Amino acid sequence: MTEPHTHDLAMRMAELARTLASPRDLNEILSGVTAAAEELIPGVDTAGILLVGRGGTFESIAEITALPHELDELQMKYGEGPCVQAALDDVVVRTDDFREETRWPNYSPACVERGVLSGLSFKLYTADRTAGALNLFSFRPRVWDSEAETTGTVLAAHAAAALLAHREGEQLRSALSTRDRIGQAKGIIMERYKVDDVQAFEMMRRLSQDSNKKLTEIAQQVIDTRA
């Protein structure tokens, strides 16, 4: 390999290393999952991820086109469909031809009207408040095989890991923020009333009980009084 080629390769590798090392947001990661599904699984014409929360709330994310969101809306409206079923119950839900699909009498004809003839949905995870599914759609019938299911399962596992990591990260950030606020409030009380940290915390705890407010609310009130 010539020296210029070696230099170009080194520069490219350095660029890739910086890209991989930099933090990416959740939607970017999940968009990469749906893009990979379109690239790696023959027959995928569009894809998206559905998150279903309590009380019928839902969110469509990482869609390749607007169609997955439209299909998600239909499923939530009718209370039926493969994406919802995968999100809440089954690990893999496969439809080879919506024109012959009888499990969802309202949703299936709506898919056909929009040119969607087959679908493949994979459960992402189930948490206390949210369920999710990776959903693949094709404009042709009978395009899925065992290899498509295997590849989709791997991609769904990656998406699930990203979602769980994001959720854990949010919980950690919330916990750190709570700890910092309580610590800051304790410091203010210690300085203002000349008490130690144990006594300062006890004062906040009693105020929390007496006012029926969360400890974090009391801490924020203490912090606000310093301004």
TrEMBL record:
Keywords: Kinase, Transcription, Transcription regulation, Transferase. GO terms for molecular function: kinase activity; RNA binding. Residues 162-223 form the ANTAR domain. Transmembrane segments: none annotated. InterPro entries: ANTAR, CheY-like_superfamily, GAF, GAF-like_dom_sf, GAF_ANTAR, WH-like_DNA-bd_sf. Coiled coil: none annotated. It comes from the Bacteria. This is ANTAR domain-containing protein.
